[in-house]
Write a structure and sequence with these properties.
This protein has 356 residues and is an all-alpha fold. The chain is built from 14 helices and no strands. α5 (136-167) runs parallel beside α8 (209-233), α8 (209-233) runs antiparallel to α11 (263-278) and α13 (306-316) runs antiparallel to α14 (319-350). It is flat and about 75 Å long.
Length: 356
């Protein structure tokens, strides 16, 4: 019995590659350059005078062109990923450009007046409309007021955060958390009015740098509490348990283990709070009053501060006064940056060593 062997056609399926087509690595940069050029060209052709419109159009073109190219070459799934990445970059650029523009304008205008004479002299005997004078009295007042406010707010905020994280859990902790949240949104003028009503009107004290420092401390405390609380929560519980297992008391565990571990984040939070209060004008205007003279005593008599000095000089409106206002603003920015660098150095020095 013979069986007929029927030959079936053999179909050969093409081998699929595991790797898909990819855009070159330089594509995002090229698309960005092309989008900026196209945005500027369209803006000029349309007669748009605002550079902001040019930038927004360039950002929109960057996202759309990136999505179109990626969809055609790599597929829709990869295109969605690239669009998300492009949106992150666009938001980053939109946040950085105003910051760089502000820094550039402040530096370029502030350096016209800023020199050793400006930093070492006050406005005593100088009319606001005249050229000359300096910022020494305002810089001295800012250093004293911010320093006193930090000495008041930092320990209270730190101890409050330690209580909430390490000991709190009842109704008192809930009440403290509620009031900290409320204080976070208090306008600066409200803090100034509170100190004005209690310290100046009820107790009868006059204007002084200390009164302004107390108002600044009220604004600073909730920021210190919140930032320190989050940093303490990041400390692993294993470190606490290991210390307690060795018989170390809880207070010593917090002092020797928890706080040194979180010292970097705590310092950053304190510096954020310092930067928050350094530029405040309303409490200083209410409680310190401002003066052209050098007053090294923060507990008696009117003082000045850098934000108040900038406000007063800019309000005058003359070219010399506006130039002094820009120079004082540059000094204020440099003051905050120096404080941050010093705090970072101290935090790095005091942080526990993790290397072998």
């Amino acid at each position: 019995m013979s069986h007929a062997i029927q030959e079936r056609p053999v179909t050969v399926t093409p081998r699929r590659s595991l790797s898909h087509a990819r855009l070159p690595r330089w594509t995002p940069a090229a698309v960005a350059v092309g989008s900026v050029a196209a945005g500027c060209g369209i803006g000029l052709a349309a007669g748009w005078h605002s550079k902001v419109q040019w930038g927004l159009l360039a950002a929109l073109l960057f996202v759309l062109v990136t999505y179109g190219l990626t969809t055609k070459v790599e597929g829709s799934r990869q295109a969605k990923d690239r669009v998300a990445t492009s949106l992150v970059w666009v938001c980053f650029v939109l946040a950085v450009v105003p910051l760089l523009s502000l820094a550039w304008v402040t530096i370029s205008k502030g350096l016209e007046v800023l020199d050793g004479y400006f930093l070492s002299h006050s406005m005593n005997g100088v009319l606001d409309a005249e050229a000359g004078g300096g910022v020494y009295h305002a810089l001295l007042g800012t250093i004293e007021q911010v320093g006193i406010a930090t000495l008041i707010a930092a320990p209270i905020g730190l101890l409050t955060a330690v209580y909430l994280v390490e000991y709190g859990g009842g109704k008192l902790a809930q009440a403290v958390t509620f009031f900290v949240d409320v204080m976070t949104g208090i306008p600066s003028i409200v803090a100034g009015l509170f100190i004005l009503a209690t310290w100046n009107l009820m107790l009868g004290f006059g204007p002084s740098g200390f009164a302004g420092a107390m108002a600044l401390a009220i604004l600073m405390m909730p920021v210190v509490v919140r930032s320190t609380e989050e940093m303490l929560k990041l400390v692993p519980n294993e470190l606490r348990e290991a210390s307690l297992a060795l018989g170390v008391p809880k207070w010593r565990t917090i002092l020797k283990v928890v706080l040194p571990t979180a010292i970097g984040g705590i310092t950053t939070g304190v510096m954020l709070a310092v930067a928050r209060i350094t530029g405040e004008t309303a409490p200083v205007l209410l409680l310190v009053f401002g003066t052209k003279l050098i007053n090294p005593n923060p507990f008696e008599g009117a003082q000045s501060s850098l934000p108040l000095y900038v406000y007063e000089q800019y309000a005058v409106g003359t070219d010399a006064a506006v130039a002094r206002a820009w120079a004082a603003a540059l000094v204020l920015i440099a003051f905050v940056m120096i404080l941050n660098l010093v705090a970072r150095g101290i935090a790095r020095w005091k942080a526990p060593k993790t290397g072998r």
